Amino acid sequence: MKISVIGIGKVGSTISFVLAKGGLASELVLYNRTREIAHAEAIDIQQAVALTPYRLVVRDGELEDTANSDIIVIAVSAPMPKNMRNRNELCLQNTQIMQTLIPPLARYSPNAIFVNVSNPVDALTYQILQIARQQSEEINWQRVIGTGTLIDSARFRDLLSTQLGIHPADINAYILGEHGDSQFAALSSATSGGALIDANPLRQQMVEKAKQSAWTIFKAKGYTNYTVSLAMEMIVRSIVEDSRYTLPVTVLIDGYCDVFNCCLSVPCVVGRQGVHYRLETRLNEAEVSAFQNCARVVQQQIQCVNL
């Protein structure tokens, strides 16, 4: 299994380490605009692998060295302003970066699965899909995935876990839609042990707290890296091992809640071919409206860039 990580900043380097530590690749290629950084990280991670039970090769390289990758992780981004208030501020610059990087990556690895973590995740995943499938007929909507609200759902479940006294893994509650300010919790279908979780005002406050926690971290550190790296590991592991986990990730939406031609997060079954299929969660009227609002927000981002 060959995995390439594109963009070795705070997030990309942490993702690379987590994937290597988990033994998810036989070959891990790190690409960064400043190759010296990728080279140093590759040496550091390769030496760390000696303390694990796994054998893999970790190396830096140019874009052509990513050829024949099974999975390509996109973690490259324009610099994030310290006072950034919305991920959408990165949309234009990051789209321009993708227009440069994705065509050669798709040509070198026409059968790869792309997993994007760069922001704004939804609009950028849509752009990556449009660019990549111009280069390879094999790259369809199932093979371009964004980490999306998997991260937000983990934050929300952590808060619910503390309040309910139940392990987060036993709570089925999803944040859906945009990985951004318009995201919402599908509380009408949230359960634990088959019992519905009451959508009381306290739970709604938890949604907002989960949403704001990323900005609390960002204001202090200038980035978030741990939750997103473990989210990426979960997606990659499900692909590598064909685990078929149900994960709320960003994919192309084609008719769900009357939304078309837009990438948003819905529960998806993830395995060796990428997204095997989307699950259509039952939403109440307010949640359907919230999902459609997410679509309008993301479509506006896409249109602004295209214009």
From TrEMBL:
An example Gene Ontology biological process: lactate metabolic process
Record keywords: NAD, Oxidoreductase
Classification via PROSITE patterns: L_LDH
Family of the protein in this entry: Belongs to the LDH/MDH superfamily. LDH family.
Domain annotation Lactate/malate dehydrogenase C-terminal: ranges: 149-305
Pfam families: Ldh_1_C, Ldh_1_N
Gene3D superfamilies: Lactate dehydrogenase/glycoside hydrolase, family 4, C-terminal, NAD(P)-binding Rossmann-like Domain
UniProt protein name: Lactate dehydrogenase
Keyword Ubl conjugation: no
Molecular function GO terms recorded: L-lactate dehydrogenase (NAD+) activity
Binding site for NAD(+): 7-12, 94, 117-119
Active site as annotated: 179
Sequence ranges assigned to domain Lactate/malate dehydrogenase N-terminal in this UniProt record: 1-138
